[in-house]
Amino acid sequence: MIVWIPTAAATAEIIFFPLAAAAAIFGLRPLHLESHKKRMLLGAMVFSVLAKIALASLGHNYDVDSARLISDILAQGKSVYANTSRYNYGPIWAWLIAGFGRLAGPGAGESFHMWMAAFLAMIDVLIAVAIARVYSWAGAMVFLLSPIGLLITGFHSQFDNLAVLMGLLAWLQIRNGQPKRAALILSAVCLGVSLIVKHILFLFPIWLVFWTPLGKLRYRILYAAIAYGLFAGVFLVWWSDPASRDGIVKNVFGYKSAYGMSWLGYVIELFLPVHSLDSLLSWIPGGSGLKTLWMGLMALMGATLVRKGVRELYLFYLMLLYASSPAMATQYVAIPMLAAAVFYPAWEGWAFVAAATFANLLAKSNVGYLLFQAISRSGLMLVRGHPYNLSDLLDVSAVPFFLAASQFCVGALFLKQWRQIGKPAVTIPLWIKMRQAAILIAAGGLPVVVSVVRKTMTYGSLGR
After folding, report:
1. Structural domain boundaries of the chain?
2. What are the tens digits of pLDDT across the range 252-262?
3. With helix as H, strand as E and coil as C, how does 378-429 read?
């Protein structure tokens, strides 16, 4: 394969940092803001980047190990799709982390991780600039200073924000409707790049086929064809290699997550086993029964939102994707953060931030690993005769509770923003907002409590 990719990627990344900084500074200049607000926003940007790099220096998790493995594979000129099952996306992120590996060098320590965090922190800065320019200064501040961004971009160093940024750039090209042909094509290309980075927007082009402000039906179909065509076409480079082709089919297009580990999955489990849906819907080709139901729900809701005239379709997609997802992991909390920041006055968004933050603070995949490492070594706790250390107990009970609660909170935010279309906002006292947020979090996590209690009573174990 191509051996010069790490060097080219490292060079591009070095160039990216000053360009991104310049884009942030010049992007804020046209804003009609008081000078002190601009200084505060710039200060928040600097703090956000430095804090995320500092968090990356503390340690890393399995996903960062996977990134280093992918970087090493590309450094040897090998195909990432043929030589590991730990990469499930288009090639753009693989090329980027190959550059991080070249910049960090072979030495020990967290330098590789810190390069990743620095790059992704600058992506967060660019998202904040877009929020400030299009939506509000306060929303940009919320996005930059949210603990979700610090924990996910910093310690976890997941790259969902890069896909979200490209999707946001795509949306802003067409947001006002009736775009010119050049803007339409540019938007479709940006959306295609987002899919290549990470395919969290894989149903959004279908939503846009229903969205008449995009133009005539043939233009909407062309838009979706460009986005999907770029995503599918990028794999043609490896398609002639049997090992790479098999890896792409199995690990990219055939990737299966832990379906059922989500608020939707826990609720279904209250009535019937999630996996029973597979047999009930076996007549539908591909995927699990729960995944099939979820995709149908997403498509139906997209058509409904379009008919209702929802303006911020992209933000609603991110919220619905997260709230209804049949599979959940701690790093996914970064996906709806853009919407939570834009709709920052809503207490449901703050409830989401609180629940998602607790989930990541307690998770082994994030800084919870560091927080409870010493405690875990000090002894074990017995639960119905089974030994557990504190970090294990939190990882199998508290983390799913708060993740499910965060999904429930985003679902509530989604419904609130839908109901408030065209209506004036209602002012609620702070203490009432805090009480309602606590109730919302508790209600969202209740299905997890029931599930854990059931398993504990049935099997005498807290295993998932």
Report:
1. 1-158, 159-254, 256-464
2. 987 777 666 78
3. HCCEEECCEEECHHHHHHHHHHHHHHHHHHHHHHHHHHHHHHCCCCCCCCCC
